[in-house]
Amino acid sequence: MTSSPFGRTVCAMVTPFTPEGELDLDGAQRLADHLVGAGGCDGLVLNGTTGESPTTSDEEKSALVRAVSEAVGDRARITAGVGSADTRHTVALARAAEAAGAHGVLAVTPYYSRPPQEDIAEHFRTVADAVGVPVMLYDIPGRTGTRIEPGTMLRLAEHPRIAGVKDCAYDLLGSSKVIAESGLAYYSGVEELNLPLRAVGAVGCVSTVANVAGPAVAAVLDAFDRGATAEATRRHQRVLPLVELMMAAGLPGTVTAKALLNALALPGGPVRAPLRAAGSRRVQELVTAHRAASEA
Known about the structure:
- The protein is an alpha/beta fold.
- Helix content is 48%, strand content 12%.
- The protein has helices at residues 25-35, 58-72, 87-100, 117-130, 141-144, 150-156, 172-181, 194-199, 210-225, 229-247, 253-263, 280-294, and strands at 9-12, 43-46, 77-81, 104-108, 135-139, 162-167, 185-188, 204-207.
- It has an eight-stranded parallel barrel with strand order 1-2-3-4-5-6-7-8, surrounded by four helices.
- The radius of gyration is 18 Å and the shape is globular.
- The two termini are 26 Å apart.
- Pyruvate binds at residues 50, 206.
- Pathway: Amino-acid biosynthesis; L-lysine biosynthesis via DAP pathway; (S)-tetrahydrodipicolinate from L-aspartate: step 3/4.
């Protein structure tokens, strides 16, 4: 399979905040250290959707990358989310992330303005031209309103620094085509598709659930990689109730991940408005589902 500089079991890490809602850099370092140790992850994505990037400042984003880079070193690949609706701002964020120590950057399709495909391609080329680290494209039309079409992906794959894709397009045919016809390292960005996408050539996943169940997420890929497909299926099915409760039961993954991290006495803290904390009943449901998934 295609190799990648982004890791395999990659956690879309939350951004820990203090009880007062300020950036908790000490907590971020402790959480990152846990995730790449007992947490079973060999890559981290910082400042993504799960990391509440819409509500953190540019200065906070750079500070987070510097702190986590210091804590993790070369034990895991650090990819920094740099997406925005503005190409100039995205370039500035990408350069700042590289300077802060990120091994790669994650750039989302410009949102709201819904640019045509060639404009999208030029946006990503401009970002890739501006940095010296690998770029992962983030295809999530449900949030951005615009797809990176397979043909556009194939053209972008020709750029020497466009190396991967976080795939949230829910298009197994299109993704399979790009995987087969390019050297792009594909990552499932949809928890329930981690195993199906791996089976058609994806190299790993970028997972919100890995904040709290990294070993269970990694175990699915481990089993598949050693040819134990029945075990991979069993492990995949075992973690699905937690996936559903965290990602598809009405609350954003950031909210559910932080609820569980706080319940497990790991750094998380509050979410920033407009998000609101999970209620006590949901927290108990999450704890029960987490316990069952961790026994897989």
